[in-house]
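My convention is simple: the sequence line spells out the residues, with the fold written below as integer tokens. I include a record here:
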Amino acid sequence: MAKITFINRDGSETEVEAQPGLSVMEVATANDIDIEAACEGSLACATCHMVVEDQSWYDKLDAPSEDEEDMLDLAFGLTKTSRLTCQIRVSDAIDGIRFRVPEDS
């Protein structure tokens, strides 16, 4: 199990243990993190967008695909470490990563 911390819009933190193989979006929605995830992980929206809190963690992730980058262009509050959480799979390699839920539009 990998530990993932979500920093909520109000600044509170939710730390969860995540099953390898799930997407970070699946973990977030299962733990009542406030993201919409409207397309349910089909890479057709940007509502599961979160910000990787630390550049070093961002650099450890696989690079976003061109399709993900196109969808990220639609995300509110885009940063240089923004990712669509439906595109990140839980593994031991991300144990300890922190994601921040962006502010509402």
